[in-house]
Amino acid sequence: MRKLCFALYFLLLFLPSFAQKNTISTAQWPVDMPWWKKNNLRVIQTNLPAYEAATLNPDSLLKDLEACSANTLLINAGGIMAFYPTKLDFHYTNPYMKGNMLGDVIQRCHQRGIKVIVRFDFSRVHESIFKAHPDWCYTSPKGERIINTDMYVVSINAPYVQDRAFKIIEEVIDNYGVDGIFLNMPGYQVNNPYEGKYHGIDQNEYDKKRFAEYSNGLTLPTEENKADPVFQKYLAFKKFTVEDWSKRLHELVKSKSNQIAICTYMDKYVDIIRHESQTNSLPYWPYSASDNVGNAVNSFPDHIISNSSIQQISFQSRYNAVEPEEVSIRLYENIANGSGLDISMMGDMRGYEDERNYDVIKKVYAHHKKYEPYFGKYTSVAKIAVVAPGAWPSGAPMQEYRGIQLMLKEAHIPFDIVEDAQIEHLADKIKNYRLVILPDITYLSNASVQVLKEASQQGVNLLATNQTMFDNPDALQRLFGAKIINKDHEGSGFYLKPDNHALFKRFVKQKMLFWKFNLGLYDLSGTDKQFLPILSKGRPGPPEIIGGHEPTGYFAMGLKQHPCSKAVILPVNVGRLYYLHGYEEHKNIVLDVIDSVYPEAHQLLQTNAHERVEVILKEYIKNVPENKDKKSEDGLILHLVNITGFSGNTYFEPLPVSNLSFKIQTAFKPSKIFSMVSKQPIAYTWKNGYLEFKLNKLVDFEGIVIDK
């Protein structure tokens, strides 16, 4: 009875203040503020096949958008084909279209307060346009075209993209009250992604002429060879031409209205950076949305990010959606990391071939709408940064990078992601971290290397893995005390010896650690300490003859002590090995190293949560009009995404997790804590700068608001 009375007393004490602080604000957003700056996007994209333009019902589409709590529609407009009655003879009209489908949809949406972003794709033209203007289209080094049925890939430097595309965009803006434009597949094309075939560098005559002008007479390369200085010049040329086109587009759009958003996958002259969570190959990556959003929000802090959950399994399997549990994870990770919600599906929502995700979409979008003020204005609390190998990582560097992320995620160590190319633009941000991890990061600019050197001098610890900075021997020597003997050394059959138990505390019961993939042989005499002796292959064969693993004289880890920081080099594929095979001994190497160089890493957030519970902690400012210019945070939000249903190649319902405990380092004593899911207050204690509380049960997601 006493416990019941105490609980009732606590509720009565708590709820009045909760109700008072959560009353609906009467303030309004400034009318001249760009609408997307509120960062509350709930986007649904209908990628319409041509034939659906004949049957799409604007009224039913509107009902479906409202049922899903969507506030933004992304729908086809033009480029490959016009989904409106165009007057331009070089703009192929959708043959199935009846009336003015686009105009009717925009009118209905605006009547209900839903923004409309229209989609353009200038990567292809219809066969009829190609026959009239073959010089507008891509030509491979072998003289081939890239063709999808009756659509031909164009050249970015030919008149269609350089001139006609602007006329198409202008026609749509002038005739329809669009709220934004989205550019699909911008830039140079070398592949036929719909068939998985590589064709090579475009040899269109317009490309040849413009590259010669840009490079003072160089011949357009025919092979992608990073060691070729002409190809390096071509990469700079591509960047220049894409940015030049984007700048011209920005000038056109903003001359029409500052309230029209430009959205695409790049960052220059763009308002909304779009990214995509896709499922293409094994092993599946359940942290795709956290990865994409984390990379973008930290690398481009002045942009709004919209990470789209792609419904389709692949380009060849568009009529099947990925599993609902995977979509749920993606959407929750989006909002937990600072993006809005965004989902892309094939066609209208009526008569859709795979509707299994509809309930998930409705649930998560409704959650975001209900708690909208608690999303979209976040600041990271992390003191560790992981450097990403680009915005769209691939190949072995991607595997190394993801493996390092996976280790930190499972250990519940907060971290940020920063794209490698943006380091030189984020010097102040980099210098505020306590540890920067470079997983197989090569081709850093001189300016980026200088930022890292200055950060190291100011107390930022560095941890590099595999072939990081192999192309900059001087920086590798100065920062890490390492010289390369053989950077491409296959490690299968070799072992590492974690014999220093003062550092490697997780290896009490292990004396040898197996290896495969790259095991670089480096001269680490320039470091202050060497660890993890490399043992030779020994004798392979049946049990009777194995053994003979002797020290090679090489080490898999070197530590260089700088005046104010430490720099550790692990010239091995430790991240890739964990990402693909998941043996904890390889994760434990990295965790022990982090404990050694930055022991405070575990102090910010401590929990008994399962390794497959993603824990995301952010400072937040309430996203309401009166806080438009506010800089000081209103508190913390702890997001929990339950990924226990992920088995590696299948997504199941997550297993409910009970009796979770949390200890969070925070300088303020909270005024209250409550659960977004249960809508109930959470009891807590705060002492000596640490907040402690428990969560009875986690199902799929939780948001715990910790107010000042």
Automatic annotation (TrEMBL):
Superkingdom as given in the UniProt entry: Bacteria
Signal peptide interval: 1-19
The keyword Signal is assigned to this record: yes
Keywords of the record: Signal
Cited CDD domains: A4_beta-galactosidase_middle_domain
InterPro entries reported for this sequence: Class_I_gatase-like (IPR029062), GH (IPR017853), GHL6 (IPR028212)
The protein, known as: Family 10 glycosylhydrolase
Lineage: Bacteria, Pseudomonadati, Bacteroidota, Cytophagia, Cytophagales
